[in-house]
Amino acid sequence: MTQSTAAWEKTDKAPAVAGAGQRMRFLIGGVIILVAIGFLILNGTLNNAQYFMTVDELVSRPELVGQTVRISGAVIGDTIEYDSSTLTIRFTLVNIPEQTDDLARTLHLAVNDPDAARVPVVVENEPMPDLLQHEAQAIVTGQMGEDGVFHADELLLKCPTRYEEAVPEQVDETG
Length: 175
What we know:
This protein has helices at residues 20-48, 55-60, 103-111; strands at 53-54, 68-83, 88-94, 118-123, 137-144, 150-157. It is of the alpha/beta class and 175 residues long. The protein folds into two domains: 19-49; 53-166, CATH 2.40.50.140. The chain has a five-stranded mixed barrel with strand order 2-3-4-6-5.
C-alpha cells in the first residue's frame, strides 16, 4: 500500500483580517441604510401630517382649488341630502370660530351665524354615516372644485354623543 502524504504549503498571504478598507465599506453601507430609513420616516411623517384648515381659509384662498386639503367645520343639518342609489352625500359646512371649552355651544353658534363662511360638500360612494347630523363637527379631506363645491374623498365625524347633554336649549320661536 502506498502512503500518501499531505503537504502543507506555506503561503506569503496573511489570513484575512478586517482591514481598514473593509471597515470603511461597512461604515459607508451602514450610513446609507440609516439615511434611507431616515428619509422614509421623514417622508411618511410629512405626507401624513396634514393640518386642518378652516372653511374661512379655504374660501379665501382660490389658489387651493384642485389641491388636496383637509378642512373642519360644523354641519348644517337642513342641508344634509343622501342619494342611496348613487351613495352620494351632500351637506354644507360652516366655519367654526375659535373653539372654546364648550364645543357644543361653539358648534351651535357656528351653524346659527348667518355671516359665517360656508362651503357645500359632496362625498361620493359612501354610505350615510349615523353621526352625520345637525351641529356635528365634520373633517373632510378632498379638493375644492372650480364650481365652489368641495369634493371629499374622506369624511370623519366627531362623535356628538360626547357633548349631547351640553347642547344649548333651542328657543321656541312659536310662542
